[in-house]
Amino acid sequence: MTATVRLEPLSARHLDDLDAVARDPEVLRFTRVPEPVPPGFARSWLARYEAGRREGTAEGFAAVDGDGAFLGLALAPEIDVEARELELGYIVAPSARGRGVAAVILRQLTRWAFAEAGALRAYLLIETGNAASLRVAKRCGYVQEGVLRSAHVKQDRRADLTLWSRLPSDPEPV
């Protein structure tokens, strides 16, 4: 496992990393990143999270190691301030996979959601075929609530998505 993972707000310094991760086949397979990736997508992706930060409707972080090298993303693509619910998500850069980085990112993002964003419920939507991400959710103390059958993912693509949640009162995972 990576010794140090730090979350920092997404910024223009992460544009090249955003562009690279958006083109990764696994990211395209299991996320809402459009296919094909449109020109300038990284810049519009960043702008979406910067606007969300200002409006309180979304938040995006880059996960970096102790030297500042990009490891992935920690995202809150949907923040419902009134309901105090946040959808969370994480993406691990190909070079950082297989080292436990996803679990570290999700644990830190979950702590942020409860402590900083004041969430009373955090949830994940994970494709049923994404075995690695399903393991991460379970390892991080999320509880599977059910399956959303044939949910719209992007463009003309539909998939079965598992719904996972955590509450601030849930026990910390070991």
Provide an overview of this structure.
30% of the residues lie in helices and 33% in strands. The protein is α+β, with helices and mostly antiparallel strands. It has one domain: 3-Layer(aba) Sandwich (Aminopeptidase), CATH 3.40.630.30. The chain has a 7-stranded mixed beta sheet with strand order 1-2-3-4-5-7-6, sandwiched between helices. Helix 1 crosses helix 3 (41-55). The protein is globular and about 40 Å long.
Brief description of this entry?
This protein is an alpha+beta fold and 174 residues long. The protein has helices at residues 15-22, 25-30, 41-55, 101-115, 131-139; strands at 6-9, 59-64, 70-80, 85-92, 121-127, 143-154, 157-166.
Termini separation: 15 Å
Identify the CATH class: Alpha Beta
Helix content, binned percent: 25-40%
SSE run: EHHHEEEHEHEE
Q: How many separate structural domains?
A: 1
Q: Give unreliable regions as ranges.
A: none
**Could you give a short account of the major beta sheet?**
7 strands, mixed
Shape: globular
Mean pLDDT reading: 96
Tell me the fraction of residues in β-strands, as a range. Answer: 25-35%
The CATH topology is what? Aminopeptidase
Number of helices: 5
Corresponding CATH superfamily? Gcn5-related N-acetyltransferase (GNAT)
Give Rg in angstroms.
15 Å
Structural class: alpha+beta
Number of strands: 7
CATH architecture: 3-Layer(aba) Sandwich
Order of strands, main sheet, comes to: 1-2-3-4-5-7-6
SSE diagram, text form:
Elements: E1 6-9, H1 15-22, H2 25-30, H3 41-55, E2 59-64, E3 70-80, E4 85-92, H4 101-115, E5 121-127, H5 131-139, E6 143-154, E7 157-166
Parallel strand pairs: 4-5
Antiparallel strand pairs: 1-2, 2-3, 3-4, 5-7, 6-7
